[in-house]
Design a protein that fits this description.
34% helix; alpha/beta; eight-stranded parallel β-barrel; TIM Barrel; nine-stranded mixed beta sheet; 15 helices; binds pyridoxal-5'-phosphate; Lyase, Ornithine Decarboxylase, Chain A, domain 1; 469 residues
């Protein structure tokens, strides 16, 4: 039986297996998985009061925000983001030249990026829009890591123009980059360790993943780039997603440091940095503990001493490019209860939907829900908490025990600060919500407005309709 605290990831794994199937089979397999593994929220919690997660705001403060900004919206906690950024930096300050490149895809908002930039974080970008976001935020040069795949020429050109560190996803991109943007002085390659590294839930098994160079290709690729005059080198990998086990990252560091030692010796090139990727998980469930940064940092330092210092290859900088763990726990989807529906099950219908938060719908991922002002009440009622999309998997929670919910109640859906608003979409004519930042001093500011129907129609030229038959 699987451990309960692995539930969110395991549930995501189950869903990954069935993506592409009709919802009915999704639902059946998902439920079968839940029952066969013993991972069952009802079993965990029935008869107990709701396990709680703390909120960084009071009911009074949230009510004040809602009066100004109608639900639904994502609310981000500046203090939480900054304190966490500093904890990460402190833990890794023992690692030579450490830098975190925030994975912009997790929360592509320039205000958040600017806060992180002030903490010394760079930006990990993967598309033209993300490069432009970094540029507009004031993050340029080698403070940008550009890790894309199936990359179009214009993105390489823009990345080079910004002076970003380009992280190549494939050996064929060496020539493509040379032909399109020209080879820069510094280049990084993404390593896919294949069978050398066990798989992880969202990203899958490395052998099945489309990303990166094989080991043999790395030797060939760096040799080729050296011959072509590239002077500075980095090595990258990204083999985990939402991983809660610190050893996983220490093993990744050992794998890369050891490989750097081999590449340096065989090719007679000097590496400047290693990028361990992102993937540090977060405790979506109240029973889970956050990943201890210091345990990872201590293990990484030991590996550095063994392989890098031990082989006389220091100094070598070590980078991370985490997204989820940087902002995930500090975001909340705030949504009002619009309707209560009682048929074969009891449904709480909210004014949000999958367009605001897809993770439960597509991965079966767990997001904790607090009913504002009812934190101390017994979780007596079993609900499916739904959105308004015409898709049966538009559910934020299935079989969730909550205190009795009434129309007009406010639900706080936790841990939406990464891959929440960012994954939004417009299917069914649904509009993406606003994003509000709760400042350290208790004030709040809208950092993205909600979409309007005009935004939805902005790409359609209706004037052509009159003469169109
Ligand atoms: C190349 C790359 N780097 C970093 C990240 C960030 O991962 P996480 O948000 O899990 O830390 C991702 C996520 O998909 C990624 O693809």
């Amino acid at each position: 039986m699987l451990a309960i605290n692995k539930g969110a990831e395991d549930s995501e794994r189950a869903t990954t297996l069935v993506i592409g199937y009709k919802y009915t089979s999704y639902y059946l397999i998902h439920r079968l998985f839940i029952y066969s593994t013993g991972f069952n929220e009802i079993a965990i919690k029935r008869g107990k009061s709701m396990v709680s997660k703390q909120l960084p705001f009071t009911k009074t403060k949230l009510t004040e925000i809602i009066e100004k900004h109608p639900t639904p919206f994502h609310l981000y906690d500046e203090k939480g983001i900054i304190d966490n950024a500093r904890q990460l930096k402190d833990a890794f300050s023992q690692i030579h030249g450490f830098k975190e490149y925030f994975a912009v895809k997790a929360l592509p908002n320039p205000y958040i990026m600017k806060l992180l930039m002030a903490e010394g974080f760079g930006a990990d970008c993967s598309s033209m829009a993300e490069l432009l976001l970094a540029e507009k935020t004031g993050i340029v040069g080698e403070d940008i890591m550009f890790s894309s795949n199936d990359t179009p020429a214009e993105e390489f050109i823009k990345a080079k123009e910004l002076g970003a560190i380009i992280n190549l996803d494939d050996i064929s991109h060496i020539e493509y980059l040379e032909e399109t943007a020209g080879l820069p002085e510094i280049i990084c390659c993404r390593y896919n360790p294949g069978p050398l590294k066990g798989g992880n839930v969202i990203i899958g098994s490395p052998e099945e993943a489309k990303y990166g160079f094989t080991r043999e290709q790395l030797f060939e690729g760096y040799r080729k780039m050296k011959e072509k005059g590239v002077k500075r080198f980095g090595l990258h990998t990204m083999v985990a997603s939402n991983e809660l086990e610190p050893d996983y990252f220490i093993e990744t560091a050992r794998l890369l440091y050891e490989l750097i030692a081999e590449l340096s010796m065989e090719l007679d090139i000097r590496f400047e940095f290693v990028n361990l990727g992102g993937g540090i998980g977060i405790s979506y469930r109240p029973e889970q503990d956050p990943v201890p940064y210091d345990v990872i940092a201590n293990g990484v330092r030991e590996a550095y001493e063994e392989f890098i210092v031990g082989n006389g290859l220091n100094p070598l900088r070590t980078f991370l490019e985490c997204g989820r763990v940087i902002t995930g726990p500090y975001g909340y989807l705030i949504t009002g209860v619009r309707h209560l529906k009682h048929i074969y099950k009891d449904y709480v219908g909210t004014d949000a939907c999958m367009a605001n938060l897809m993770r439960p719908g597509i991965y079966g991922a767990y997001h904790h829900i607090t009913v504002l002002g009812k934190e101390d009440q017994e979780a007596t009622n079993l609900y499916d908490v739904t959105g308004s999309l015409c898709e049966n998997n538009d559910k934020f929670a299935i079989d969730r025990l909550l205190p009795e919910v009434k129309r007009g109640d406010i639900l706080v859906i936790h841990d939406t600060g990464a891959h929440g608003h960012a994954m939004g979409f417009n299917y069914n004519g649904k509009l993406r919500s606003s994003e509000i930042l709760l400042r350290k001093d208790g004030s709040f500011v809208q950092i993205r407005r909600a979409e309007t129907v005009d935004d939805y129609f902005a790409t359609l030229d209706m004037s052509g309709l009159s003469g169109f038959e």
